[in-house]
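Researcher: Go.
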Amino acid sequence: MVISKMEEAQFAEAEQDGEWPNAEEYEKAKERLEEMTHQWEESKVSNEHCFRMLPRLEKAVSRLRAEEARLKVSAERRQARSRIDVAEIRRRWYLPEEEGGLPAVAEACPHTRGSARRDRPPER
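Model: Structure:
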């Protein structure tokens, strides 16, 4: 069941497109911010107008920059997960550990609650 879920996730991730739909909006917002700053530096725009507009432009650029970063991280994670060879995991799942198989799940997951420890004899 775990392996089939991994396979389903790989197929679903392969179908997703990694292109960011707001790239153009981000570029335009950066250009507007730069242009406003440039206009203010050349004294073509009053201080009042510039300082009223800049926070909104900076907020939009920051929001879009954060959105782009989240998308990149998500794409990197998907790519890293897609490198997992499910066929290899499936093959090793049934092999004994001595032959390169995966360790038993019960041995790989330590118990953190006392209820599971009562079943085992105390270690000395």
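Model: The chain has a mean pLDDT of 77.
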